[in-house]
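Bump. Still looking for Decarboxylating 6-phosphogluconate dehydrogenase structure tokens.
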Amino acid sequence: MEMGLIGLGRMGGNMAQRIRRAGHTVIGYDRDPELSDVGSLQELVDRLESPRVVWVMVPAGGPTQSVVDELARLLSPGDTVVDGGNSRWTDDEKHAEQLAAGGVGFVDAGVSGGVWGLQNGYALMVGGDREHVERLHPIFEALKPEGPYGYVHAGKVGAGHFAKMVHNGIEYAMMQAYAEGWELLESVDSVTSVREVFRSWQEGTVIRSWLLDLAVDALDEDEHLEKLRGYAEDSGEGRWTVEAAIDHAVPLPAITASLFARFASRQEDSTQMKMIAALRKQFGGHAVESAD
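Sorry for the wait, here they are.
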């Protein structure tokens, strides 16, 4: 099968390699000419045989919208666009409607696998009309891990990115739980090797997981994580998960708390804790620390 792939960064570039290894043809376009097979989106479209498949792997929001706008102008009826980035599911609905006006199909694909996807395969959560999704099965089969799992047609347009968003929300909460347990273990004198405790959990326990394996890898590199600053960004999908929970009146206390914990990590001096300290002094006479 032949396809175009827009965005050949760390994720997109590895995906292109995996697809090619499965025997398919990938013509890639990237703003970095050293990575790109063609000089423009126009050239990419011209190189592909109809009906075309173009997979988009660029940042969500404005960059994705810009690419969709140009593809809507360049593509022909019967072509299909796949958004494999981390777009918000509500944007998928707009993109599908925009492309459908020109007879172009749209599929949203939530992709999980990170830097290990080239080696291990990518989990794929896909949304879109069945006719468009089925056309892409050879590509999905090339990207997914070996075995029966790792790919799902989750539902209508937007379902793929919605499922990936929830996946990332769960990931936030799982990482937060490991982090809290690690900090508590580190805080007591009786536990002399927190790293080995984590390592012992890798077999036979109910909390074993790939994230736990990665935590052990990190502790092998830096046993007490002394080289790191306690700061964590968020991709935006955690926020979208919490917003969707509010819209649907679904309680998500663990995921919401894990998102707020990331916000707290960015504060060198917590403004909220100033009020807490002031109130504790007022009602209980508790000691406070000066700003100096």
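The first strand starts at residue 2 and ends at 6.

Edit: fixed formatting.
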